[in-house]
Please model this.
Amino acid sequence: MARLGRPHRPFYRINAVDSRVKRDGKVIETLGWYDPMSQDPTKTLHLNSERIKYWIGKGAQPSDTVADFLAKNNVIDAAKHSAEVADRNARRKAGAEKRAALAAAGGKKDEKKA
Model:
């Protein structure tokens, strides 16, 4: 998503870009837009479903936010997406618990490596 608009009035374009390009860098193709400030719900989000499916078929990976939009609009499988989100959240929680346990133990990782 490339951020456009003015201060306090964001507007985003949903783009296909190379993963090595910065957020507002060179775009391969514009696939839709998102206007979070729109008063009309029909003008909040526009997606080019055919081209999005094409790019996903080529191996493109949508960001978390774009994947949420795609799942809500039935462009990708919503059940698979929700399972991936649940798995990701479980891994984050496990990592946070592991870091908390290390901090509680005095921050010593492994004394053999020292």
